[in-house]
Structure formats: structure tokens, C-alpha cells
Design a protein that fits this description.
The protein is of the alpha/beta class. Helix content is 36%, strand content 16%.
Length: 597
């Protein structure tokens, strides 16, 4: 009897899993034949986020040369390396180009087709263009995957959830704001994938409060300006007259740092150094669950700020100063070998800071992670207009620094962040703060988008609110204020939450995940699906791995920066895909052998 594997989600994560199955099947699988069923209403490869049916104005936030779906020797995995082209090599475009999402979707479709073509002849792939509603079946027997378009379930020996970004029910605050909007005829757009939001209610010339200053905001900015007929002439924006006026703020009050705009040359920092497998093994051996920043641990429980952050801080500092000393030695006052020895021996942050002060004369060459994370902390402006000038200056300085190779220690920190993320994913759920910090420093918008932002600000289409933006629903309107500009507030009849929904089990609109939770799937303190970090098997509330159910992606506590990555950076998602693919193939092989015995 042919065996069956159901993969729910056919986007880049599901495609990456098929690629790894194709790579390891010749070694691990010799069963009677295998049917792989892909369940996804969107086209395989591109999935929802990278589908063709979206505005061509929306870009990726990575250079085309920094995007790959293929493994290389830097990925720590048991399966074979199967190299392949980056996006820019495949598309034949300038590697420094920020490709649009439609082009990335085409690349992902091609990768999917290549992966399927690379499967052994006895493995067949079937696409079901619909949603999966639930999974049933005992731990010991075949699973049943129920689909929205048919009365009969798919029978599966194994099920892998590769669901990607999901919609979510509103939390308490969002629910109250939505209800208030309904009562007073206001517009409230909750967290969403911006390309799916209905922006038609945001009227020309009217003020709109926008909470969120990351990549979802950049998409919103583009769709409400160029998407409504505006255009740029150099650094000047020429409005169409159809734009609303966007008042944007967030917790930090500033946009994500711009993508670095120059190439790496010279020696790379030897990473990991202070946060590698040995340190992760020691951290995971501690009893108790992990906590997010600011949460108190108890007894021997793991606390991010106390136990993990000092290692992260030291690792990022090492990456920064390795680059500074090796590429820009004229700006240092000590030999690298001496600095490295003393840096490694330093027992804490204060000792490291003293060392850096003596070895790096210019404060601008020193790494200050707190200032990078919260640049407006304690900063106050006398007026709203003064703040507009101040934040434009901040963005201009960031753009200048991120495009100047004399500041290439920043690129060392970027590589350090990628290395750290690849290690921290092994710890499971460490709270949301780290993911936001990483995105702010390492996953920001293309430089041209921030130049667009500056032009929109000068044109009066975009206004900055400040840090710790507070939104109140009162007097029939929404009001926003920030301590950055004491005494200033702005009111509007529209509020947009410019961010993706939180990937929580309890509030997921996806019926399959909600059913899993109701049936006893494990959940972290932050609401993520608990999985075995070795191979992605879903854990129940007692911590037992399900032998026939796996999960990969942002809704799990094994979430990674993305389903694809920059070449030669270890690719934690690739490592996970490989481990899950090999575990699935071994299970199916052994199951087939038992049936034949």
C-alpha cells in the first residue's frame, strides 16, 4: 500500500521541506511509494505572501543576491547539500536590486517545480487548492486531514503543518477599538498582511493614525501614495491629491534601520564565538521554561534578560569589534590579538565597556545596542514641527551610515545577529522582544524606501508622532500622543495597526490550529505551538512528541527569521526543514518495513 504524507501549507516553507525530502529520499526511503499531498488555497511555491496577485509596487526588503532557497556548506544538517541559484542568479537581475514580490513569487514557484522534479519516481505530489480544517486520528494510527471542499478526509501516515503567517482574532484592546469604531462610524484596520487590507476607507486628505513603524508600515505607505497615483522626482514627492495624511508612531517611534547598502569584503568574524552550541546546550539543560525580557524567572528557570542576553550582547560586540579592528585598524588604539584576549576574559558588561573605551577612541565606532534599539528614550522635543525635523535628521543619518563602508562594523553586527538567531531558535520560545529587536536592526526596509519616507515627510503627507505612541478612543474619535512631544496630540477618524497579527494558538483564525489546541497541543507562555526542537514534532501539554504530527513556521516556538535566507549564513530554517524531512522519511521507511514483515 502506498504511504501518504500531508503538508498543510505550500508556500516557501512547504517548498523547502519538499526540497529536503528530495535531497534525502534516495538515502532514507525505499518504501512502496509515497503520495505527498499539499493543502493550500494559494499556488504552490509562492503561497499567500508571495503570490502574483498583489501590487507590483511592493518590494522584498532584501537584495536579490541575498535571497536563496538552497542549502550550502554553512547549513549544519545531516542531509546532503543541494546547491542552487540565488534570486538574482535565477532572474538575471542586478544583485543589488530590491526585487518586487511578484518576481520573488516566480522564483519560489520555480524552486517548487524543481524540488518536485527532483523527487524519486515513486514519490508523487498532489496539490489540493483549499484549506485544511482539522486533523484527527490516534497517535498510533493513520491521521485524517479534513478539507473544506470535500466530505472525505485525506488519509495520512504523517502530517506536517507549514502554515506560514496566519490571521488572528482580535485581542482585548483591538476588540475594544473595533467596537468603538463601529459605534462611532470610524475606521479601524486591525493587524493584517497589508496587501490583504481594504484601504479604500482611508479618505484623501484625511488624517489617519498609524501604529507600527516596521515593514507593514512601509507597505502601507507605498500603497497609499504611489499606489494612489503619486510619484517621485528625485527627492521630491508629487502628490496625486488622493493620499490621506499619515500620522505614524510606535513603541520606538522610529522606522527600522535601513538595509546595509554595500558588499562584504575581507575577513568574516569567526561566529559563533560566545553563543554557540555549547552555550545553548548549557542553557537548555536548566530546569523551567524560558521567559521574555523583563519577566522574572524562578529558581533555576531560564530568564532571557539575565541568562541569555549577556551572551547575545557579548557575541554581537565581538562581531562588531572584529570587523572594526580587522578592516579599520587606524581607528583603534590596540592590537586585535590583545583586544580579543581581554574581551574574551572580561567578566561583564562594565569590564567590556572599560576595555572598549581604552581601545576605540571615537564613541561613534563603539557598539551601543541600547541606543540602537530605543534611540528616542528620554528625548523630548519642544514642538511637533521640531520633532519632524529631528526625525528626518535621524533617518538621514541612518541612511548615510548604512551606505558607507567606513562603517562596515555594522555589517559585522548584522552577521552576528544572523548567527545569534540561528542559535536562539534552539531554545524555543524566548519571548517576543528578541524577534522585534532582531527585525529592527537586521530586517529593515531598503534604503530607497526610507528616502521615499523623507520625501513624503517634506511633502506633508507623512507626519511623525513619536515613541511609546498611545492611542485613546474618546469623544467620538481616535487620539494619539507621545511623550517625545509633550502636550501634542492628534485626532483622526481612522486608525491602522500596521503590523502582522501575533501568531498565537488561542486566537488563530485557522480552524486546524484551534482544533489542535482544543485537543491538547502544547502552548508556550506567549501562545506559540510547542514543538520538539530536534525534528519539529508537535508536543502535547505533557511535553510528549506526537509521532505523526510535525509543525514548522512562525506559529511554533521554533520560529526562524524566514523560510529563505541570505547565502552562506547557516539558514536555521533550512536546518529545521532537513531535520523534519529526514525524520519523516525514516518514520515512513520503518512503517513500510513493519507492514511488509
Amino acid at each position: 500500500m502506498r504511504q501518504s504524507l500531508v503538508i498543510v501549507g505550500a508556500g516557501p516553507r512547504g517548498t523547502g521541506l519538499i526540497e529536503r525530502i528530495a535531497a534525502s529520499a534516495p538515502e532514507l526511503y525505499a518504501g512502496p511509494g509515497l503520495d505527498i499531498h499539499l493543502v493550500d488555497p494559494h499556488p504552490p511555491g509562492a503561497g499567500r505572501i508571495w503570490r502574483a496577485a498583489q501590487s507590483p509596487l511592493l518590494w522584498m526588503n532584501s537584495h536579490a543576491e541575498d535571497v536563496t532557497m538552497f542549502t550550502d556548506e554553512t547549513v549544519v544538517m545531516d542531509g546532503p547539500v543541494r546547491p542552487g541559484p540565488t534570486l538574482h542568479e535565477w532572474a538575471g537581475v542586478d544583485g543589488a536590486l530590491f526585487a518586487d514580490r511578484q518576481l520573488q513569487g516566480a522564483y519560489l514557484r520555480w524552486v517548487h517545480e524543481r524540488a518536485v522534479a527532483g523527487l524519486p519516481a515513486e514519490i508523487t505530489v498532489h496539490h489540493h487548492p483549499c484549506r485544511a480544517l482539522r486533523v484527527s486520528g490516534s497517535r498510533e494510527g493513520r491521521q485524517r486531514v479534513w478539507l473544506e471542499n470535500g466530505p472525505r478526509p485525506l488519509l495520512a501516515d504523517l502530517v506536517v503543518l507549514a502554515l506560514g503567517h496566519l490571521d488572528a482574532e482580535l485581542d482585548d484592546e483591538q476588540g475594544e477599538l473595533a467596537a468603538y469604531a463601529g459605534e462611532h462610524g470610524l475606521t479601524h484596520l486591525p493587524p493584517d498582511f497589508t496587501a490583504d487590507s481594504d484601504l479604500s476607507a482611508l479618505a484623501p486628505g484625511e488624517p489617519v493614525l498609524v501604529r507600527g513603524f516596521g515593514l507593514a508600515f512601509v507597505d502601507l505607505m507605498v500603497l497609499l501614495t504611489e499606489g494612489r497615483g503619486g510619484r517621485y522626482e528625485g527627492d521630491t514627492y508629487l502628490p496625486s491629491g488622493r493620499e490621506p495624511v499619515l500620522y505614524v508612531g510606535s513603541r520606538r517611534g522610529v522606522p527600522y534601520h535601513a538595509k546595509i547598502g554595500y558588499d562584504w569584503t575581507g575577513e568574516r568574524p569567526p561566529l559563533p564565538r560566545f553563543l554557540g552550541p555549547a552555550e545553548i546546550e548549557e542553557l537548555t539543560a536548566r530546569p523551567g521554561r524560558s521567559h521574555g525580557p523583563g519577566e522574572a524567572g524562578s529558581g533555576g528557570a531560564l530568564d532571557f534578560r539575565r541568562d541569555v542576553w549577556p551572551l547575545v550582547e557579548k557575541e554581537l560586540g565581538f562581531a562588531h569589534y572584529h570587523r572594526l579592528f580587522t578592516a579599520h585598524p587606524e581607528r583603534t588604539a590596540m592590537a586585535w590579538t590583545d583586544f580579543e584576549e581581554k574581551y574574551a576574559a572580561a567578566s561583564g558588561a562594565a569590564e567590556r565597556e572599560a576595555l572598549v573605551s581604552s581601545a576605540v577612541p571615537d564613541p561613534h565606532d563603539r557598539l551601543d545596542l541600547a541606543a540602537l534599539d530605543r534611540p528616542l528614550d528620554g528625548v523630548r522635543y519642544a514642538s511637533h514641527e521640531e520633532f519632524q525635523d529631528g526625525l528626518r535628521g535621524y533617518v538621514e543619518d541612518d541612511l548615510s551610515r548604512r551606505h558607507d563602508p567606513r562603517n562596515s562594523a555594522d555589517l559585522g553586527v548584522f552577521l552576528g545577529l544572523l548567527s545569534v538567531y540561528g542559535q536562539l531558535v534552539r531554545l524555543g520560545d524566548i519571548g517576543p522582544w528578541w524577534h522585534g529587536f532582531f527585525s529592527h536592526l537586521a530586517s529593515g526596509p531598503p534604503g530607497p524606501r526610507l528616502r521615499n519616507l523623507l520625501a513624503l515627510s517634506r511633502a506633508g503627507v507623512l507626519r511623525f508622532v513619536g515613541a511609546d505612541m498611545a492611542v485613546r478612543a474618546e469623544d467620538g474619535v481616535f487620539r494619539a500622543s507621545s511623550p517625545t512631544v509633550p502636550g501634542f496630540s492628534v485626532e483622526a477618524r481612522a486608525l491602522v495597526e500596521a503590523r502582522l497579527p501575533e501568531p498565537t494558538l488561542r486566537r488563530a483564525r485557522d480552524p486546524l490550529l484551534r482544533e489542535l489546541y482544543a485537543e491538547g497541543a502544547g502552548e508556550t507562555a506567549d501562545g506559540l505551538l510547542r514543538v520538539d526542537r530536534a525534528d519539529g514534532r508537535i508536543l502535547d501539554r505533557a511535553g510528549r512528541p506526537h509521532p505523526r504530527r510535525f509543525a514548522l513556521g512562525p506559529h511554533t516556538d521554533g520560529r526562524t527569521p524566514g523560510a529563505f535566507t541570505r547565502p552562506r549564513t547557516g539558514g536555521p530554517a533550512f536546518r529545521q526543514n532537513d531535520a523534519t524531512a529526514r525524520a519523516a522519511l525514516v518514520f515512513l521507511r520503518d512503517l513500510g518495513a513493519e507492514a511488509a514483515a
